[in-house]
Amino acid sequence: MDDYCSNCCQELIDTSENPDSSLCTLCREEFIRHPIPKWIFLVIVAVMIITGTALVKTPAVLKDYKIYKTAESSYNQKYFNKAADDYLLISDRYKSALRINERMFLALMKAQRFEEAYLILDERLAGEEASDETYDEINSYASLLDRYGLTLEKLDPIFKNETINTDYVKTYKKIEPFLSDKECETSVVLFYLSQLNIGQNKLDAAIKQLEEALKAEPRYTFMASFLGNAQRRLKLYDAAIKSYESALALNLDDETAYRGLGVVYLVKGEKEKGLAFIKKAYDINKNGLFVADAYVVALHANGKIDESFAIYSEIKKDENYIIDKDMDEYLAGRKTLEQLYTN
Amino acid sequence: MLLIPGIVISVITFPGVIVHELAHQFFCRICRVPVFEVCYFRFENPCGYVIHERSNNPWKNFIISIGPFIFNTIIGLIIIFPAAIEVIEFKNFSNILSLILIWLGVSILMHAFPSTGDATSLYETVIKNKKVMLPVKIIVLPVIGLIYLGAIGSVFWLDFLYAIGIGMLIPNLIVNLL
Fold this sequence. Notes:
The complex is a heterodimer of chains A (about 350) and B (about 180). With about 350 residues, chain A is mainly alpha-helical. Helices cover about 70% and strands about 0% of the residues of chain A. Chain A is built from 17 helices and no strands. Chain A has helices at about 25-30, 40-75, 80-90, 100-110, 115-125, 135-160, 170-175, 185-200, 205-215, 220-235, 235-250, 255-270, 270-285, 290-300, 305-315, 325-330, 335-340. With about 180 residues, chain B is mostly helical. Chain B has helices at about 5-10, 15-30, 60-90, 95-110, 115-125, 135-155, 160-175; strands at about 35-40, 50. A two-stranded antiparallel sheet of chain B has the order 1-2. In chain B, helix 1 crosses helix 2 (about 15-30), helix 2 (about 15-30) packs across helix 4 and helix 4 crosses helix 7 (about 160-175). The interface of A and B includes residues 32, 36, 58, 62 and 131 of A.
């Protein structure tokens, strides 16, 4: 009996595939093809459908992940403009993605793109619990943005309604009391006052106010570039370079600071170095404040006349771009670089 | 450390148990090893099992034992891949499909590790088998050790960490290669 199949007990054991087998050939085949229940097939189909869905999603998600990783890398290297642009590129597809929204908000704030940051804060982050690792930073920047917005709400109407040049004293007197307004951001009020002083060519006073503003809130890096511009106009080149570099220490994507640095080097006679910095600014944001103008001037100053006029005619086509009128004077040879960029 | 009874974990991650047992059955069929009984899922320990003939070929036993590891890892990875990026990396918890993919992917990956039953079976059929040559035993012994380590590690959520690790490691490797 030992030689017979333990299952059917009718056929001899087949040991051709396994010497220890207790099954005949037929039973062996039957057990090898052990049936899979029908409900398992349903599970298999469901898993296959889900696997297929996952596979279809994968290329797009992978592409977005690549963009996200690039944004993260730019963010960690302090290229906040680039980081913000990359986060924005993918954010619409992941509107509720906390990590993307948090990092995008911080990048926009650090790149001084306050209006866009406000939209993200209002539409995507309001009511969300920030992650532990960014909780303090997010709250701190959100509070900064709130105060900035509130100050702007109070000061902008005054600034816009008054004829600044003719009613300088009147406007100044209207804005100055906001320095003691606890709801207002002191540094922003000081910035407004400095702009009034710059308009009146009172550069010393403007510099003091900007320095004070930056001391109160160093995260407003755009103010450092305005400070550098005022210092440059007074020919305080080393101080101006320090101001621009302090802005770049916080955001390596600050086109205004690169433009400012470039202009200082142009005026100092280091024209190639100046052009390199201004080109950097142009590459980051050619629509930045007076960036394209400075690029035209820098190319011209470096003898690249054709390139200079190519950029010039390009910006002339853009109706929204405000061209520096003094630039025409320089290009016509009626002003020197020093006359163009200093008092 | 959060200690949850294994049976509860298995119930929550039941698709992984089913895929694990299916993988055993699949590799038995590939290796032409008769299967006597299959339990794809039940509410007791072990939650699933496959009773099959012991082969005298150590490689067949080896493949059948570690088959689910390969099978569950591949299937789980494909499923979890896009969702892990969206849920774990981007922290997007509002996409229901992604959450389903995460649950299914994690469930399948958590049950990739062969069970101690598989390790015992390997030990009996390979290590204790006098007909098996020493080099084969040398190859298989560390695998058995790893299976036991995995079983101990599951107390410390090693199986879960494996699932998340695979879900994030592979996408990162691919992105770095692109």
